[in-house]
TrEMBL record:
Pfam families for this protein: DUF4270
Name listed for the protein in its UniProt record: DUF4270 domain-containing protein
Species in which this protein is naturally found: Flavobacterium silvaticum
Length: 519
């Protein structure tokens, strides 16, 4: 398993979090040390919570997209395919006379981190971020020309132009109209560009040679990337020898060449899944052109992997959520919903003029579930609590501008980070703690409306965009019709103790520390 697991010391984080609570500090000496106030009173409120399956979810134009196959011992197998439009880097390129193609290279950089180590040849070592593997990590990757026209907009029943939405369950639509044979058909002894593809973490080293073909004149080093040779005869015909009208503009080109379709299939127990920024990808067509040998020149045409995209995800062996538990799972997976504070509790807090020092929900991971402690299972690093009614972030998320050198841990006061917690000197558990301090303050002082809260996996805490669930999905109702986009991207999930858990120490509840005026 190639992923970092960030486990924080809860005590150290607690000190940091209190120091960074802006609103609490702003109260200053008006409360701290004041003679008219009681400090640090704790009250636990019961909550209600349940989990629903999201069904198919909107997955066009995501910031990053999963590609590959992976079987989680808890949640089963996910297959992630991908389709993207392709655009000319330069419209209406001048091909030249009598073009002869040399090669066609697809390149998509991986998100990786240098380890600081080098081998005996001076090559830098890297780890690929957000990579999940089983066995050898090799799987069958097929790349096809896409035949499905991807639109930006559509006309609805009222003849209004609206955005076109695509969903995770549309793989068959794409697969049914793929064009011809696979394009990554280069036969090599290890088949690493097709039937035994793997996400290679090696640094890419390119040498330039003198005329003698031996002396190295320059060396270029690049971070790891997907490098695949595409069928050059196909691209010679499709690009170099096509009617110039097809290359006149990107609108014309996207109608003519409808993009690439990436299809993944597992090889028994060998699997891998990676999150990729496909928009950084390119196809470089290298060729020569000229009327005579003396006038022939080296030329390139670059195609960018930009435009409309769809993440195509399918899950098998659906997980049955046990009684008293909650589940969150990315992609077409699971989201949970939580209701806090009944009207009488909220009225009591308002009447007694509670001053909220801290309010939080702690979600303990149920590690007794089969597979949860297996080496092939990874708990998500972040979960995200949001306002389901208004399909937006809660105040505590919006107010939190805290940052760390690792951007994935930003907004750490708001929280939702995978933490280690010592329930006793001998019992270590893991949990996610999310603060609702500002949300609760607004309910009391501003008479705001108490809303239903949603809980989901977050692949990127900076991303609070909401995506649609497909109409007709199970448990489809107002408030649940959108889920966080950061959850659609993630392949990960976890099982949490719910509000009905029998063990009080791990049961989900709203914990409030408050101050009230003395009579």
């Amino acid at each position: 398993m190639h992923i970092k697991k960030f486990l924080f010391c809860l005590g150290a984080i607690a000190v940091l979090l209190v120091s960074c609570d802006r609103d609490y500090n702003e109260l200053g000496s008006d409360i701290l040390g004041g003679e008219n106030y009681q400090l640090g009173t704790r009250h636990d409120f019961n909550v209600t919570a349940s989990t629903f399956a999201t069904g198919a979810v909107q997955s066009n134009n995501l910031a990053t997209n999963p590609l590959g196959v992976y079987t989680d011992p808890v949640f089963g197998k996910v297959t992630a395919n991908f389709v993207t439009q392709v655009a000319l880097a330069t419209e209406a390129p001048t091909i030249g006379t009598d073009p002869e193609i040399d090669d066609v290279i697809l390149k998509i950089p991986y998100t990786s981190t240098a380890t600081g180590e080098t081998d005996s040849d001076g090559n830098n070592a890297y780890t690929i971020n957000s990579l999940y593997t089983r066995g050898t990590g090799k799987f069958n990757l097929e790349i096809y020309r896409n035949g499905y026209f991807l639109r930006d907009n559509e006309v609805d029943g009222s003849n209004e132009i609206t955005s076109q939405y695509y969903y995770t369950d549309q793989n068959q639509d794409i697969d049914n109209v793929k064009v011809g044979s696979k394009l990554n058909d280069l036969e090599t002894t290890d088949h690493e560009e097709n039937t035994a593809f793997f996400f290679n973490p090696k640094e890419i080293v390119t040498n330039e040679y003198a005329d003698d073909g031996v002396t190295v004149t320059n060396t270029t080093r690049e971070a790891p990337a997907m490098i695949i040779h595409l069928n050059k005869e196909y691209f010679a015909e499709a690009i170099l020898n096509t009617n110039s009208a097809n290359l006149a503009s990107n609108n014309a080109f996207k109608e003519y060449f409808r993009g690439l379709y990436f299809k993944a299939t597992g090889n028994n127990d060998d699997e891998a899944l990676n999150l990729l920024n496909f928009t950084a990808g390119t196809i470089t067509i290298s060729y020569t052109a000229g009327e005579t040998e003396d006038t022939r020149t080296d030329r390139t045409i670059t195609l960018n992997l930009t435009g409309t995209t769809i993440s195509l995800q399918e899950r098998q062996n659906a997980f049955a959520v046990p009684q008293g538990r909650l589940a969150v799972l990315g992609g077409p997976g699971y989201t949970s919903q939580i209701d806090i504070l009944n009207p009488s509790d909220l009225e009591m807090m308002r009447n007694e003029k509670w001053m909220i020092n801290e309010a939080s929900l702690s979600f303990y991971v149920d590690e007794s579930i089969t597979g949860m402690q297996h080496a092939d299972h990874t708990n998500p690093q972040r979960i995200y609590l949001y306002d389901m009614n208004h399909k937006q972030a809660v105040l505590d998320y919006l107010y939190d501008n805290t940052t760390l050198s690792d951007a994935s841990l930003n907004k750490y006061v708001y929280g939702g980070i995978y933490l280690k917690d010592s329930l006793s000197p001998t019992v270590i558990r893991h949990k996610y703690k999310i603060r609702l301090t500002n949300y609760l303050r607004s309910l009391i002082s501003d008479d705001s409306t108490n809303v239903r809260l949603g809980l989901a996996v977050s692949q990127s805490i900076a991303n609070s965009t909401m995506n649609r669930r497909k109409s007709g999905a199970p448990d489809f109702s107002e408030g649940s019709d959108f889920i966080p986009q950061a959850s659609v991207i993630s392949p990960l999930g976890t099982v949490l103790y719910g509000a009905d858990a029998t063990d009080e120490t791990t049961r989900l509840k709203l914990t409030v520390y408050y101050t009230i005026p003395n009579p």
